[in-house]
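May I ask you for just one protein sequence along with its backbone structure tokens in two labelled lines?

_____
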Amino acid sequence: MTCLFLNRSATVLAPIMAAALTAAAFAAPAQATPAAPATTAEADAAAQARGAELAQGVERITEPYLVTLHCTARMSEVFGFERDAAAEAAGAACEARAGARLAQIAGERASRALAEIEAAPATLEAAIAANGYAPADDAFAAISASAAYRAAAPEIDAAIEQARRAGAAKRDEVLIAERDRLDAAMDALDPARHGPSDLPDCAAFDRDQPWLRPLLSHCRDLWRSFEARHTHLRCERLFEIAPAELRTGAFDVGGGETMNATALLCDYGFEAEARTRGGLFSTSRTELSLQLGPLEAPLTLTGTLHGPDATGLWQLQALSLSPGRLARDLDPDAPETLRHCLADPARCQD
């Protein structure tokens, strides 16, 4: 075949070749990339369809945290790191479905929690064991910043709120009952006959559960009120026996130190008692006893009151300890022995 353009110059051929290439380009078949949807409605429908594909399998996940990871993982698998608006829309549709699954899990867990709360006894022990009947929603609190949670936050919160209200109602029932029990126990005590060892134990409320704080505070207030009345009555009774001038006096505790007598005998919680010994055929003397150490295992330190001396100070002499006996290296008549025993009851005992 003879080429018609064999003798034409390159300048003449260039426009003709360019036109031919352009025509060929328009005649080439279409590429694989789909055309964008023509309308917003079509774009939304496409995003929902793609989101449903991405969300497949989320309905079988039972752990909230794993639900929040599902769409992110699927987006990475399908779109990689370069995502256009259509990919982001599909991801949002997936997160909405994941949020619906979270709401379903929250409803299931809240139903179980509600049944457990209703079945639990309204006692202090049961309430403490159940952390105040509070539904365990930590799994949802930990994921509250996730896209899936935000997509269904109202539904999740509503599901858990019913269990929260039921737990709060039973918790209030326990608080009221325990407060009434404490009040009744305190009312039954006579400050003139009972002491700190007879009081209700506030340690039952001293736990790392905030809902118990009102009970702990109330119990401690009752303790302080009782101790004030108890101390006043005991002090008045003690000074009916002890010399009146001792009330404004001070004890010599050795080393040039003194201790206010009223503070020691009335204010420091040593449960002081006074007794009169002798009479008729012997010189009358006053004995004072102090309780040392913890309430569950107190030591009683007893001595004979002497004084006031030339300096106006009083002393406790002939000190003895029970149960057990005074440490051998402590002089029962020395003023500093009282100071040692008050500061360290264990050091006082042999």
